[in-house]
Design goal:
Mean pLDDT: 97
Bound molecules: zinc ion
Cofactor: Zn(2+)
Number of helices: 11
CATH class: Alpha Beta
Structural class: alpha/beta
Radius of gyration: 18 Å
Organism: Laedolimicola intestinihominis
Number of strands: 8
Strand content: 5-15%
Order of helices and strands: HEHEHEHEHEHHEHEHEHH
Low-confidence stretches: none
InterPro entries: Aldolase_TIM (IPR013785), Class_II_FBP_aldolase (IPR050246), FBA_II (IPR000771)
Protein name: Class II fructose-bisphosphate aldolase
CATH superfamily: Aldolase class I
Helix content: 40-55%
Number of domains: 1
């Protein structure tokens, strides 16, 4: 069942659990994500990057069809829409949510460009995620982990002025692999949650952040956790074992990768308490 991301996140907010947002790369990973959601009776957010497929409208249409056939609620979110064109392509392709990532720009530019997209998306019944503060790269964690963190009062003002459905916050996570140990600013998160009222919050850079940190973040008011690197690494680890056998079964290549990817995703679905939370119309 295809739903908006706002519907999934508002329920998660009200009921106090988190939702995984795995990045998909192919039909195999899309099917894997939907199967995990169905097996665990969980709502699910599928994150799609604009660059991941040479024919995004086709790719999104395929995800829409599989989601519509599924009994569990699924939202399709364009992840990191960096340009106006990317976001419009996501909307036109059939995403039920778009992320407007203007976090590298000034506050004023971020505000103005996010507002522009909110106006379009709201008219079409599509949810909008924006980012304030900037979640950087794990490879540059010494600098990115402590700079451009989200200011609570500014976040509240940004939500009010833009009308976004949810906000990605920078509290010490980073994209990709961490160089060093992640340190999450939970005090800041508490202040953001307090300042932002009922608006659901998003955490990018879930991979490698650790179960304890992520479970605590969800308990503290994060409703969506983006996961990309760690799921792929889990798939790769299964493949490393698989290739140790010189007579490996060539037909089992993708299922082997998918097993690692799916098991890791299922682990987080349970950790965030989203299992059993699917609903029907
Ligand atoms: Zn991200």
């Amino acid at each position: 069942m295809l739903v908006t991301m706002a519907e999934i996140m508002n329920r998660a907010r009200a009921e106090g659990y988190g939702v995984t947002a795995p990045n998909v790369q192919s039909e195999d990973t899309v099917r894997a994500v939907i199967k995990v959601a169905e097996d665990l009776n969980a709502p699910m957010i599928i994150d799609v990057n604009a660059f991941i497929h040479p024919d995004l409208p086709w790719f999104i249409q395929m995800i829409r069809e599989l989601s519509e056939l599924s009994p569990v609620p699924i939202a399709i979110n364009l992840d990191h829409g960096k340009t106006y064109e990317d976001v419009i392509l996501g909307i036109r392709s059939g995403c039920t949510s778009v992320m407007v990532d203007r976090s590298s720009l000034s506050y004023e530019e971020n505000l103005e460009q996010t507002k522009e997209i909110v106006k379009i998306a709201k008219a079409l019944g599509i949810s909008v995620e924006a980012e304030l503060g900037h979640v950087g790269m794990g490879a540059n964690y010494e600098v990115d982990g402590v700079s451009n963190l989200t200011e609570p009062d500014q976040a509240a003002k940004f939500i009010q002025e833009t009308g976004v459905d949810c906000l990605a916050v920078a509290i010490g996570t980073a994209h990709g692999r961490y160089k060093g140990t992640p340190h999450i600013d939970f005090e800041r998160l508490a202040q953001i949650v307090e300042a932002c009222g009922d608006t659901p919050l998003v955490l990018h850079g879930g991979s490698g952040t650790g179960d304890e940190n992520l479970a605590r973040a969800v308990r503290s008011g994060i409703q969506k956790v983006n996961l990309a690197t760690e799921l792929v690494v889990a798939g790769k680890e299964e493949l490393v074992e698989f290739f140790k056998d010189p007579n490996f079964d060539k037909w089992k290549l993708m299922p082997t990768f998918i097993k690692g990817y799916s098991d890791r995703l299922a682990h987080y679905v349970k950790l965030f308490g989203q299992d059993g939370k699917a609903w029907t119309r």
